[in-house]
Amino acid sequence: MQLQPIVTTPATVGSAISNEEAGALARTTVNLFKAWNLTDLEACILLGGMSARTWARWKTGARWKEGGIGRIDRDLRTRMAHLMGIHKGLRYLFTEPARGYAWIRKPNATFGGQSALDLMLRGELSDLAAMREWLDAERGAW
């Protein structure tokens, strides 16, 4: 028996989010924030201090129909990717979507009585990453 060479596939972990993917993330983020019942201020904080005017344009969706919503920088792309990871983790943990959406605001003993939203609203990208990592660990992804 002769050994055969193994064809390797390059890792894509950490690959850049394309402009098309960023647009899809933006549209999905608007819908997610509706499901989470976030205020405009909360949404702007989670999106890294986005201006209220920009957020208002995102919510109307008019800019998407015109062919673009403006520049989405790397920080904002990463924030939205973490938010989708948080959403995904909650969907795995809760079979009923409404429970996962409500969990965001519920006080949690693990977080010292604060809610997940309270922790994420501290505004740092690392807060979103930490919440995503916590949810991944809770669902046994590691």
What does this structure look like?
- Helices cover 58% and strands 0% of the residues.
- It is mostly helical and 142 residues long.
- Helix 5 (74-93) packs across helix 6 (97-103) and helix 5 packs parallel to helix 8.
- The longest helix has 20 residues, at 74-93.
Mean pLDDT: 88
- As a whole number of angstroms, the C-alpha radius of gyration is 18 Å
The topology string of helices and strands comes to: HHHHHHHH
Based on the structure, what is the oligomeric state of the protein chains? Answer: single chain
Task: Determine the strand fraction and express it as a percent band.
Answer: under 5%
Q: What gross morphology would you assign?
A: globular
In this structure, how is the largest beta sheet organized?
none
Estimated structural class: mainly alpha
N-to-C terminal Cα separation, in Å?
A: 36 Å
- The overall strand count is 0
Percent helix range? 55-70%
Q: Could you list the spans in which at least 5 consecutive residues all have pLDDT below 50?
A: none
**Count of DSSP H/I helices:** 8
Task: Describe how the helices and strands are arranged.
Blueprint: H1 19-35, H2 40-46, H3 52-60, H4 62-65, H5 74-93, H6 97-103, H7 116-120, H8 125-138
In short:
The protein has helices at residues 19-35, 40-46, 52-60, 62-65, 74-93, 97-103, 116-120, 125-138.
Descriptive key words:
mainly alpha, 58% helix, 142 residues, single chain
